[in-house]
Structures are given as C-alpha cells and as structure tokens.
Amino acid sequence: MRTVDHTLNATDPLAQRIWDQVAQSPLRNLWDFQGASPRLVWRRTFHAMLGDNLLSRAAEMGYYFLFALFPMLVSASSILGLVARRASNIYLSLLHYLALVVPASAFKMVIDTFNQTTAAATSGKITLGLVAAIWSASVGFAAIQDGMNTVYKVRESRPYWKARGAAILVTLLLSVLVTLNLGVLLGGDLLAKLLRIEIWHPWLAITADASVHIVQWTLASSLLLLQFNVIYYFAPDLKVKCWHWMTPGAVIGVLGWVASSIGLRVYLHFFHSFTIAYGSLGGVIVLLTWFYITGLMLLLGAEINSEIQAAVMEKKLKEAGEIPPEVVAEPGLAPA
Taking CA 282 as the corner, what is the angle to CA 277 and CA 286, rounded to the nearest 5 degrees? Predict the structure, then answer.
C-alpha cells in the first residue's frame, strides 16, 4: 500500500461527503452543469488551485518530466540507431515538430542529446536505457497520480505494484499517442507537398493544400485532447470512472498549454539574454520551465473537471436534503 497521505481541503465531513460522491458517481456529461453556476465553478477552481497547492505540485511534476526525458531519448535513439540510420532520421524529423511549442534553446538541447546518443548506439545502452526510461517515466506518472488525487480529494488506495504498473502502461500508451500525433503532422506536410507538386491547376492545388492542413491540425488537436483525457481517466484513484472523449478541463488545459508555450517562446525570443546569462544551464532551465507549464495546465484542467462534478453533486445533495445549505465543497469559499 502506498503511504502518501494527501492533504485534503474538505476537512468538514459533510464537505468531504460531496467529494466522496464525486469519486463514486462521476458525471457522464461534464458539459451539462445541471443548473450549477459556471461562474461559481470558475471561482471554486481558482480557490482550489491555491488550496491544493497546485503551483508546487506542478513544479514537482516538471522535475519528474525532466528526469524521465533523457533516459527515454537514450533508449529511443539507441534502438533506432541500431535498427537503421534511416529510422533515426525519420524519428528526428518527427521530433522537429516539437519546435512548434518547445522553446528554441530547450529544443536544441533535446535534439543534440538525441543525435549524440544515436551516433553512439550500442546494445548495452538499449538495455540500460529501457530500464531507466521505464522507471523514470513511471515515477513521473506517479507524480501525476498524486496531483490528480489531490485535485479530487481522494487518498491513494491502490497497492504500490498496481499503481506503478498502471503508471508504466499509461506512459507507454501516451508515448504511442505522442508519436502518432507527430506522425500526423509529418504525414500531413508530406501529403500537402506532394499535392502541390502533382496538381497542375493552381486553385485546386491551393484548395487541396488547405484541406490537408485543416484535417492535419484537426487530427493533431484531437489526439492532444485524447492524451489529456487518458491522463484524467487513469491517473486519479476514483472508485468509479467514466470515460469522456472531450471535457471542459481538457479543452481549457490544451488551449492554456498551447498559449503558454507560445507565450514562453515569444518571451525568450525577445529576452534571449536569459539563456546567455545562464550559459549551458539556460537550456535546462527553459526546458524545466516548459515542463512546469505543462504540469500546471494538466492540473488546471483536472481541477476544472473536478469542480464541475463537485458543484453538481453539491447541488443534488442539498436538493435531496442530505447536507445543509451552508455546506460547500471548497471550505473557506462562501456558497453562491
């Protein structure tokens, strides 16, 4: 049994009862607030972010993401370097699409690491890389599990082996989805280029190119939403789980992640002295900052989803007379 004890905000037993119901009776449609006020949900989300100390938890997740990245690059590059140089070149092309959101200095460090480990690939590195990648990735997802449990006000009840096993399997699934997402971007660009060459009519070529890119970015966005929802489904230790293809939290989390990533890139573009001041450590600091933003947006999306469910459940319990009107899911926040 894992011994992590989450600090629950809902110390009032009646308030905790709301969260227990959320864990046992999830909503099938998170877009239906069932009469709960969207403004109240947003107020409680902001309050809960501070109360659950998500800023610190995002920093913890960012560190573990960084901890997991380099063993995974060593493992992937070693395998591809031994299998075929052509395969490593294709994977390198896929990684270049990360430059859309990853700051330039951090991205250069990742690519340099990949190239160096690919050039020096050996069978020993594959074995060591796989073990290190699996372990470090499972530690990273365990940090996500802890953060999601805090958001939903539940304590981890899964045995250690089960929680860590789930972390490994979900990490492998997310790795496949990330690779597939990058593959969609690469395939879309290649198809659009081919159509521009093969179609002789200029307007038809422009129409075909635009259509391919619309489909490309629609699929890429859908896969990104899917990655968020996979985490929201498997990470928290809820008694009953309900799969959602699209949730308000995932949409806001993805949009916030994209906007924050682009904002960080713009900031570093105009204030590039940051990396100059820190020298070779600048890339690591920038990458860690980007991972911090990623963790924070993941937690924000989960917080929104949980507060929607808590607001609806609170309303139901009050209407049924099971809790007094003055009880709220978030202590310290007055009822609407």
Answer: 130
